Amino acid sequence: SGEASEAVRSELLDAMRDGSAPAVTCSFGLTHSSVSGDDEERLRVARSGLQRAKDLGGDQIVYADLSLAEEPPAG
């Protein structure tokens, strides 16, 4: 879920601030289960969200849908 992903990002940021974790970023691509009845298709859509998050500079959460998954790759 978006809340869980944001919680991971927040906890990681806190750990980096206090020095208990190395400097890293977290990017997530999320989608809703209603996007498709097929697990592989849902995973493909979520991966398109992850790629968009990376393309936007990383350290982001992108909620993907079928229209995002159908866009040609950037670059």
What ranges have pLDDT less than 50 throughout 5 or more consecutive residues? Answer: none
Largest sheet: spatial strand order: 1-2
Estimate the helix proportion, in percent.
40-55%
Q: How many separate helices?
A: 3
Q: How big is the Rg? A: 14 Å
What fraction of residues sit in β-strands?
Answer: 5-15%
Principal-axes shape call: elongated
Termini Cα gap = 29 Å
Number of strands: 2
Structural class: mainly alpha
In short:
By secondary structure, the chain is mainly alpha-helical. The protein is 51% helix and 8% strand. It is built from 3 helices and 2 strands, in the order H-E-H-E-H.
Secondary-structure blueprint of this entry?
Elements: H1 2-17, E1 28-30, H2 39-55, E2 61-63, H3 66-70
Parallel strand pairs: 1-2
Question: Which short descriptors sum up this protein?
Answer:
mainly alpha, two-stranded parallel sheet, 2 strands
Structure description:
The chain is mainly alpha-helical and 75 residues long. 51% of the residues lie in helices and 8% in strands. It is built from 3 helices and 2 strands. The model has no long low-confidence stretch (mean pLDDT 89).
